[in-house]
Design brief:
With about 230 residues, the protein is an alpha+beta fold. It has 2 domains: about 5-10 and about 15-60, no CATH class; about 95-225, Nuclear Transport Factor 2, Chain: A, CATH 3.10.450.50. Helix content is about 30%, strand content about 25%. It is built from 5 helices and 7 strands; from the N terminus they run αααααβββββββ. A 4-stranded antiparallel sheet has the order 2-3-6-7, covered by helices on one side. Strands 1-4-5 form a 3-stranded antiparallel sheet, with no helix packed on it. A hairpin with a 2-residue loop joins strand 2 (about 160-170) and strand 3 (about 175-185). The longest helix is centred in the middle third of the chain and has 23 residues, at about 95-115. About 10% of the residues are buried. The model is unreliable at about 1-55 (pLDDT under 50).
Length: about 230
């Protein structure tokens, strides 16, 4: 403990009110400090206490209690909610693309009927229902397949293959398309092995067709010719 001795040689008792507290109270009241004088410099810690005590008029005031500093409560910020991905609006389907896809499917089915019609009378009938009498090119090919069945001929050849179907125009109920096909060579032979009809080979042959929907809403070919 620091020695804060008085003129009488006695030291302040630990835990009791210090002499410096009574002196400050007397000075604030305008009276001289009675009975004691400071014989040594007041330590810095005590000087700070004097400043804190001030001119309190309460004689019974005890030692100043020091309140420990409080740490401000830290609030945790909620984790940001991930934003939902923005869905782009679904674009309206292109009617032209839909029509071209529909016509392409029809023409591929027509070529399938042509290939199968050499061996199947049912396919031959289906082939005939897919074009009108006005399509002369369609009718010529159909007659060869019909002859094969009626005369019990044998067909030798590979299948026709579709390479491309493109929509050219559509208006007034008539659709115009262009097609590209590979038509391999073929022939019709009778029971004696004699050649009855021969078909030339055509690679990437281009044709143009006109189509309409009949009264039942089914597509049919009304005209076709090789370009």
């Amino acid at each position: 403990m620091l020695d804060l001795g008085s003129r009488g040689g006695a030291s302040p008792e630990p835990g009791a009110r210090g002499w410096w507290t009574r002196a400050v109270k007397s000075r604030c009241a305008g009276r001289p400090i009675a009975g004691r004088t400071v014989t040594r410099a007041v330590p810095v810690l005590v000087a700070s206490a004097l400043t804190v005590v001030g001119c309190s008029s309460d004689d019974d005031a005890g030692p100043l209690e020091t309140t420990p500093p409080t740490t401000p409560a830290q609030t945790e910020s909620p984790d940001p909610t991930p934003s939902e991905p923005t869905q782009e609006p679904t674009p309206d389907p292109d009617p032209t693309e839909e029509l071209e896809a529909e016509i392409t499917e029809f023409f591929e089915e027509y070529i399938d009927a042509i290939n199968e019609s050499w061996t199947s009378e049912e396919a031959l009938q289906r082939r005939r229902e897919m074009f009108a009498d006005s399509c002369e090119e369609c009718l010529i090919g159909y007659e060869f397949a019909k002859r094969k069945h009626h005369q019990e001929l044998r067909f030798e050849g590979d299948d026709v293959e579709v390479l491309d179907v493109s929509l050219v125009s559509a208006g007034d109920g008539v659709v115009v398309i262009t097609t590209v096909i590979d038509s391999p060579p073929g022939r019709l032979i009778d029971n004696d092995g004699a050649l009855v009809q021969e078909f030339d080979e055509y690679e990437a042959v281009q044709s143009v067709y006109q189509l309409v929907k009949n009264e039942t809403g089914v597509w049919i070919i009304i005209k076709g010719e090789v370009i």
